[in-house]
Structure formats: C-alpha cells, structure tokens
Amino acid sequence: MVRLAPIAASLPATVPFVGPETLERQAGRPFAARLGANENGFGPSPRAVAAMQAAVPDVWKYGDSLSFDLTRALAAHHGIRPGNIIVGEGIDGLLGLLVRLTVAPGDVVVTSDGAYPTFNFHVAGFGGVLDKVPYRNDAEDPQALLDRAHQTGAKLVYLANPDNPMGSWHDGAVIEAMLDLLPDGALLVLDEAYAEFAPASAIPDIAADDPRVIRMRTFSKAHGMAGARVGYAIGHPDLIAAFDRVRNHFGVNRISQIGALAALQDGDWLAQVLARVDAARQRIAGIAAENGMAALPSATNFVAVDTGRDGAFARHLVDALAAQGVFIRMPGVAPLNRCIRISCAPDPELDILAQVLPQVMSTL
Amino acid sequence: MVRLAPIAASLPATVPFVGPETLERQAGRPFAARLGANENGFGPSPRAVAAMQAAVPDVWKYGDSLSFDLTRALAAHHGIRPGNIIVGEGIDGLLGLLVRLTVAPGDVVVTSDGAYPTFNFHVAGFGGVLDKVPYRNDAEDPQALLDRAHQTGAKLVYLANPDNPMGSWHDGAVIEAMLDLLPDGALLVLDEAYAEFAPASAIPDIAADDPRVIRMRTFSKAHGMAGARVGYAIGHPDLIAAFDRVRNHFGVNRISQIGALAALQDGDWLAQVLARVDAARQRIAGIAAENGMAALPSATNFVAVDTGRDGAFARHLVDALAAQGVFIRMPGVAPLNRCIRISCAPDPELDILAQVLPQVMSTL
C-alpha cells in the first residue's frame, strides 16, 4: 500500500464538520429551514448575481492568478495597499496556508477550547500542537490566550472577533492591547469572518503593516457568497508575499472573483442585509424567550441560545429539530454546549423555527 | 517579524506560471488571441452554462462538502465506485494534497525534466527532493522514470499521459506495464488532464482499486471549465479516503459542482468540442508548416511546434507574438524549448495567429 508521510499517517479520519447536504441524505429529505452553517440566506447582492451569471460563459478561462482587480478594490475599500492583501479560497483555505507557512511539527498554537474547529484541523494537519484555554463568560479570553502564548512560546494565537460559536465580541481596543502583550515572534490570527455584523467599536484600528497580526475576512458571510469560496487576509507585506510560496496560484474561481468585486461595490445591498440580520437576531431572541431560553448577545449573523440545561439536552434539541426539518448546530465543548446556535435567515425559515421549536421542546 | 516554518522559509518567491492577465497588465492591453494556457475556447456545454447561471442565486450556501452528486455521476461514468473518487479544486489542488499526504521532507519524487511545473512546485513546497529524468524523443520516458525510481526509492513517480508541454503520448499498455515495474511502495501519479483528447488506445485499463497508481482528471480542459476549479482523482479507496484528513472540506465551489455535473451529462457537446479541437490541431499544424515549422503530433488540445531552432529563438518568437497580441507559451528546458506551444481555439483566434505569425517570423 501507499506509504503516507508521517504526519498524514498520524491524522484521524474525522472531519471538522458534517455538511447539511450530508445530513439531508442521511435523513432522506431536505431541510425545511437551513439555520446551522451561518450562511446568509438573504443572499448575495443582485449586482453580484448578475455579474456572476454574465461571467459564466467565460469560465473556460482560468481565473486571474493574482485576483488583481479584486485585490485593488479591497485595498481601496480598506484604505491600504494591495501588497497587504492576499485573496484565497475562503478563510478556511487561507488558514490552512497560514499554518503551513508558520507551523513546523511540534510548534505550539494557542486557541480557545470550543473555537473554530477548522483552524484546529489545519494545525493538527501540519503537525502543530494545539494548546487551548477556556472561554470566559462565553467569550474568548484575551488574557488567558496571552498568558498561554508566553508559557508555550506559541507561533500562532487564534482569536475570532466576533466569536464563533458564541457570537460574543471584544472591543477593538482590547484586540489592539493584545498586540503589545504578545510574545516576540508570535502572530495573532484575527479571524474577522463576522466583522461586518459587529458594532464599529469591535473592529480594532491596526496598521496593515503591523507584523504581529494577520486578519482574515470573507465574502461567505455578510456578502452571502459562501459557495463561491472567496476570502482574504490582511497583513504585513512580507507575510502576505509568503503565501505565494505555497498557494494554489490559479485556485480562486474566476466567476467568484468577479462576483466578489461586484458585491464589494454594492454597499446599499450590504446595508440592507445587515439590517435584516439585525432584525433576525431580535426575532430569534424572541423565539428563544417564548420557549423559555435566553439568547446571548450577538455581533454575528447567528445567535447562541442558552438552553439553561446541559450539553446532552442541547444535543437532543439539535437532533429533534433536525428530525423536524430544522438544521441548527451547537458548540462542541462544555460549558458552551449548553447552548444551541441558530443562524439568521429570512422570515419564512424563522417561521418554521417558531412553529417547530415549541413542539420539539414539549417532547424533551 | 513572523518566524516562517523551516520549509516555507527555504522556498523561493518564484511562482510556477505567470498568468495571461498579468501579462496583459504588463503590456497595457488585452491579448487578441489567448492561446497559451491550454484553455478550451470552445467553451463549456450550454447545459453547464445554464446550470451554473441558475445556481448563482443559491451561492449563499456552502457547496456540498462531499461533492456527492458529482462523485456519484463520475463513478457511474467510469464504471467504478464513489469511494474510488475524490473531487477537488482542480488537478493543481489535488496534486498539492497528494504530495502533502505522501511526501515527507527529504523524500524523493521522480518526474521528467520539463514536465508540469506546478507538480514540482508542490513537491518542493513540502520539502520533497525532485529527481528528474530527460524526455526521450519529445516524450516522457517510462523506462527512465522507473529506473530512477528504483535507484532513489522514490515515493511518487509523476507521468502525464498525454504529456504537457509536448502533446506526446504513450499507448495505455505502456502505462499498464509500468505498474508492474514500479518499486514497492512507490505510487504512480498519472496525470490525465488531457485524456479526453487522446486516442482511446492511450488510456490504460487499470482497476480503480489498484494501489500502485492515482489518476488525475479535470473539467478544466475538454469540459472547458478551467475557471471553475473542478478536478478529481481516481485511486484505491484507502488513498482516496486519506484526502479527507487534509483537504479543505468545503473548498469546492457550489456553482462549479453543479456545472461539472451538467457538463458530464452532455456527451454530445463534448463530442463536438473534441471534433473542433482536432480540426484546430490540424489548422495549427498547417499554420506552422506555412511558416517553415513542424507541428509535433498531439493527443491534447494544444500543439507543440518545432521551430527548428533553439530555445533563444523560441523565446524571441513567444515574446514577439505577445507584443502583437498573441499569447502562447513554450517548454522550459532544452531540448524541448526549441518548440513553442499553441493551444487549440476557435477560428477567429487562429485567424489572428495565421495573420501575425508570418509578420513576426519575418522580423526574427
């Protein structure tokens, strides 16, 4: 048989996430409400839709290997230089490349216990050693992350702000202060996938050339283009340039580049989506309250709902909702796993949630 | 500054290919004829175009992490089981994953000097040691590859059949015979990106469960969907399953999965494309002959044209054509680099080639 390399041979066969289509096939029918993957059912900008549809016949061409037009537009949008930006196949893809660039086998990476599993998948996948600190008050704990980074000599420190799966957030000033307290040579991986949904005060003011941090952004969430696989990282030009050493140079879909550019230019649509997401957050909180549960504050397009019980109860609830056609997810570790996580969505899907949840609760 | 991991720190900043859009930006104007990247200007199936356009509004959903429908259809198409197939972000992406799975730092990988640079990029990128054998009669040399694999204890042996950049091919029986002569534990990486353009006799009859080989196929070439980033590998189920340990599970674009499925189901369109490609090969050979050059036989959607001179002449020719708006490429090493490589394309683009080439030749 094929001889796998030692790291690959040591990896488990488990995968970070089971997708909703997989669950639908297992159940033998589609979900009526798709509220589990923090997708944005309000959809992409109509201008992005039109641009992508118009781009389809030209898909015989490879995409631009530099994502030049999109990178320039992003630089203008953020008021930084193109050399501070690398576009890639979603934050998932970029996190993998970043870990590959920085983590040698045995290197320590610090994150929070219950934070983004796909990041952990990449760290393990390159032989890194994960060191996890607990959440504090349902939020990632900057001081604990810093303390552990100093204790371990961590290469990377991962923090999502706002956080997934809890929807909590820190003030941007807290993130800025973290940078001065990082150990020398450690890099803060600031996952800002949900930044557009957060209050402006949650976004730190960090120079794009700051070598202590790399920020991750995406078109999968606020821009409603998860299936298009476009994300980008902002960082020091030397670190950004290093991605060229390892990335799949023609890997970003041609149609997606064009769609992302159009989405970026449609600020009116984004503003509408953000308003709808905010309304959906409030509606989900109301549905939770009607069922005796408490929504946690959210700066994202999902709401963590505290069941007031434990992880076993939340798991029963998730499974029972799935059996009734409602797809949600839940945090993976205690004490976060007393919660369920419900993605914002248009009213027809939340109507289904509102109808099904009381029935399910009455059976548990 | 950020401490790169040792392998990443050792890698050069060079990239495998400069894309046509980059060249266009350098020149300040678009190419009139895009004949350099072995794209398929006859385009995707109209059914695939329609399916992708219809899929655009739903791009807010992540793609199916298992590419389930496409994988099942591919299995039926090839008469094998879904467990023999992994769908990924083009052959480029799958080659990277394969190298990561199998090549530890210092492991030897055997390929041909002048064969696919992106494969070499991945091998170097994971710390593998490339050992190259020369082409023989403008074709990859199976016996030399086998001999070197035995001498070095190679983990991987790369062979493209048909070959890129020369367009040459071996009979399928030659590939089949190679398997019996591989060293124990070596894996043949059989890149069949151009298989659909080749005579049926060039396709080896290999059991999908054979653990000695992994075959790579793509929707980028015959199916005209290079910008969509969909390829697949066929191999032993244990090796195919190992991709799950390292791949970006939600990395395959949702629209692309749907488009590839539609393309696969449109055999009539594929047959038309293959006929047009064959006509274009003949026309390119005629244009070459009119200009005192000899087209090599091709089993691909491009034609290597022997200039009868050396690499410096071919480079001048490529550059002079680019200056006149005609994008082609050329092999990177001697003696292959006495040739230029011209991709098949619809007549309007070949008209431009036919018009510009004599002008350029007269100036050299």
TrEMBL record, chains A, B:
The keyword Transferase applies. InterPro entries: Aminotransferase_I/II_large, HistidinolP_aminotransfase, PyrdxlP-dep_Trfase, PyrdxlP-dep_Trfase_major, PyrdxlP-dep_Trfase_small. The keyword Transferase applies. Keywords: Aminotransferase, Pyridoxal phosphate, Transferase. GO terms for molecular function: transaminase activity. SUPFAM superfamilies: PLP-dependent transferases (SSF53383). Pathway: Amino-acid biosynthesis. Transmembrane segments: none annotated. Residues 35-356 form the Aminotransferase class I/classII large domain. Signal peptide: none annotated. Belongs to the class-II pyridoxal-phosphate-dependent aminotransferase family. Histidinol-phosphate aminotransferase subfamily. PANTHER family: HISTIDINOL-PHOSPHATE AMINOTRANSFERASE (PTHR43643:SF3), HISTIDINOL-PHOSPHATE AMINOTRANSFERASE 2 (PTHR43643). This is Pyridoxal phosphate-dependent aminotransferase.
